[in-house]
Amino acid sequence: KERIVSMNILSTNSLTKYYGSGPSLVKALDGVTLEIEQGSFTAIVGTSGSGKSTLLHMLGGLDTPTSGSVCVDGQELSSMEPNELAIFRRRKIGFIFQNYNLIPSLSVYDNIVLPVELDGRTVDQLYLNEITDTLGLSDKLNRKPNKLSGGQQQRVAIARALAAKPAIILADEPTGNLDSHTSQEVVGLLKATGRQFHQTIVMITHNDEIAQTADRAIRIEDGRIAESRW
Ligand code: ADP
Ligand code: MG
């Protein structure tokens, strides 16, 4: 089968991830082959324990597969050295986790700009203002994350992911702790910046309304793709 490789910024081939062994073997991913087009917004849905987070971690090179492969922007992740992979990930991918993963000792501002600074790049201040305005964080930049509510901390994590203008944003239930109005707003922002910077967004969500607004929804069941809808 012929295809234009560059159109698919993310792809997996027969990806598996097993945990445990013998009778306690868990096939968290059980042969996932998928392709995600550059600039698209993909929702990943499925019941708890179906393998969504495991898939997202593999796509971002945060974990290694049991077998199969992951290709990001033409690069086979398993072919990279750990250090090389860390740099590649920082430049290409913005992660948004359910539990925020903020650094408590740093201010909100320093948390947001950290990935950009680690990469030795200059912060785009105008863009940063736009992001923090939209996310309602402008007056909280000097605070420590633990002074903020869960929803506010998630906005900081989203701002951090956006600030580096990554080609790919991988989000694991980013609106899980936000009310429905804020969820819509946050997803709206992600989509708008996604379009503006031609970013590829892959978002795990339990929210059907959000999944329905995606370009594509992939349903995972028992570590396999059960349904892929455009
Ligand atoms: P989801 O995000 O869809 O809720 P996960 O990808 O987190 O699902 O988990 C898929 C399956 O793999 C579950 O059965 C889970 O218990 C198992 N699993 C995930 N991570 C681990 C781990 N580190 N060790 C053992 N089992 C795991
Ligand atoms: Mg999960």
Explained architecture:
This protein is of the alpha/beta class and about 230 residues long. Helix content is about 35%, strand content about 25%. The chain contains 7 helices and 10 strands. It has helices at about 50-60, 80-90, 110-120, 125-135, 150-165, 180-195, 210-215, and strands spanning about 10-20, 25-35, 40-45, 65-70, 75, 95, 170, 200-205, 215-220, 225-230. The strands form 2 sheets. Strands 6-7-8-3-9-10 form a 6-stranded mixed β-sheet, with helices on both faces. A 4-stranded antiparallel β-sheet has the order 2-1-4-5, covered by helices on one side. α6 (about 180-195) links the parallel β7 (about 170) and β8 (about 200-205). α3 packs parallel to α5 and α4 packs antiparallel against α5 (about 150-165). The radius of gyration is 17 Å and the shape is globular. The structure holds adenosine-5'-diphosphate and magnesium ion. Adenosine-5'-diphosphate (ADP) binds near residues 26, 46, 48 and 51.
